[in-house]
Structure formats: structure tokens, C-alpha cells
Inverse folding.
């Protein structure tokens, strides 16, 4: 199974909105409501920011939102802030007790 | 608050073994499935292994199947990863991660440790 496909980089100005796509297949993203998104700052551990396609853990800013259409999931950051500059990874359950990550997207503010 | 702390990383020669540990605190460890996820230097994340909340079932990525073994000690709130027949391509930061669901694995990793670096090199 191949990794999920994400753009290598996305940039935006403070206050703008950006969207990161995550494309899989009907065997992973398209089959389960189990897409999650992680934020990773340099040298730090990943942090869960979206799970179950569009659920936000407590404590995660409301400017982060998730959605999905068919085999493509998306993460939107509204009102971009300087501290949002990081790498973002999508992840999907892929059946047969296996999880696939995307290659990661570097967000520049 | 919930915390995870890995240990046991280091430099090891190809073909040798290494055992990682992950100490859990701040949550009911025995209620949750646990995972290992790794990240090669400068690369993305890769899921490695899962163990169910009760330790009765374990599952692996194809890249480590037959070489790595995940286990847990619920009485001591500790997760382990035994890595045998190590290869240079196993070089990575290894993270332990808590599954967000109680009972069955729920598909998201809500708590991560800080990671421990494993370098496989002669």
C-alpha cells in the first residue's frame, strides 16, 4: 500500500485560510471515517489536531477543521497564525489493521 | 495529564537487537490500545505496530513483520518494542502513541511520547 498523497508545501499570510489535501483510495480514506491530522513542529512530537475525519480534540483551536469527499480528505486552517508554521500529516486507517500516513505538508506563514 | 516517555534508543550494528520501552502515566493504560510509529531522519511518519488494550493481539507493518515484537505490561503501565535483525533502513525516531478510543483501536493517536532515536549503522 502506498502512502497518502499530500502537497509538499503550502503557504499563506497571517489571517488567511489555507487548505491541505490528502488523497488516498477507496480502500483507505474512502472506506472509513478514520482520517486524522497531526501537526509537528521541528524537533517535536506530532500532535493530534483532527480525528474521525472532522472531530477536533479538546484544546485544539477552532481554526483547524477537517472534511472529506470521496477519497480525498482536507485540513483547513482559518485565520492563519505564525505558530501554525509546521509540518502537517494526514493519516487513515487502511483496513487489515494497518494505518497509512501522508508524506507531510510544510506550512509556511 | 496523560504522558508517555520512551527510552532504550541508541546506535546498534546491522543484524543486532534493541528493546525500546515506553512508560505511561496520567491515564488508565489498560483501557487503551497502544502503537509504535517511527520517523526516519528528515522523512514522514510510518505506523509500525499495534497492541490491543489487553495485550492479547498484536499487529505489524509489513516492513517490520517477523522482526519486531510489541508487548505491554499493564501492571507497570509500560509498552515495549523488541527489534531484532535490525537494518539500516530501520534508523528512525521511534514514538509510542496512545490510541484515542477505549477498548478497540479507534484509528487516531492522541498522545505521543517525545521519541527515542534508533540508529542502525556499522
Amino acid at each position: 500500500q502506498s502512502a497518502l498523497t499530500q502537497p509538499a508545501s503550502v503557504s499563506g499570510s497571517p489571517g488567511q485560510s489555507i487548505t491541505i489535501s490528502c488523497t488516498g483510495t477507496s480502500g483507505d480514506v474512502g472506506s472509513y471515517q478514520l482520517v486524522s491530522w497531526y501537526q509537528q513542529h521541528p524537533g517535536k512530537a506530532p500532535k493530534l489536531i483532527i480525528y474521525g475525519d472532522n472531530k477536533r480534540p479538546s484544546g485544539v483551536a477552532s481554526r483547524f477543521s477537517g472534511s472529506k469527499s470521496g477519497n480525498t480528505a482536507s485540513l483547513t486552517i482559518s485565520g492563519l497564525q505564525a505558530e501554525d508554521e509546521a509540518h502537517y500529516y494526514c493519516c487513515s486507517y487502511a483496513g487489515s489493521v494497518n494505518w497509512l500516513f501522508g508524506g507531510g505538508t510544510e506550512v509556511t506563514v | 495529564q496523560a504522558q508517555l516517555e520512551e527510552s532504550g534508543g541508541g546506535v546498534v550494528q546491522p543484524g543486532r537487537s534493541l528493546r525500546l520501552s515506553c512508560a505511561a502515566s496520567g491515564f488508565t493504560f489498560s483501557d487503551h490500545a497502544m502503537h509504535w510509529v517511527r520517523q526516519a531522519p528528515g522523512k514522514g511518519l510510518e505506523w509500525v505496530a499495534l497492541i490491543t488494550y489487553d495485550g492479547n493481539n498484536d499487529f505489524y507493518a509489513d516492513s517490520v513483520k517477523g522482526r519486531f515484537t510489541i508487548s505491554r505490561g499493564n501492571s507497570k503501565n509500560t509498552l515495549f518494542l523488541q527489534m531484532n535483525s535490525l537494518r539500516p533502513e530501520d534508523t528512525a525516531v521511534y514514538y509510542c502513541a496512545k490510541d484515542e478510543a477505549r477498548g478497540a483501536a479507534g484509528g487516531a493517536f492522541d498522545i505521543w511520547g517525545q521519541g527515542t532515536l534508533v540508529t542502525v549503522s556499522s
Notes: The interface with chain B takes residues 3, 32, 34, 36, 38, 44-48, 51-52, 57, 89, 91, 93, 97-104 of chain A (CB under 8 Å). Strands of chain A lie at 9-11, 18-23, 35-40, 47-50, 64-69, 72-77, 86-93, 99-101, 105-108. The radius of gyration of chain A is 13 Å. Residues 64 and 77 of chain A are 5 Å apart (CA to CA).
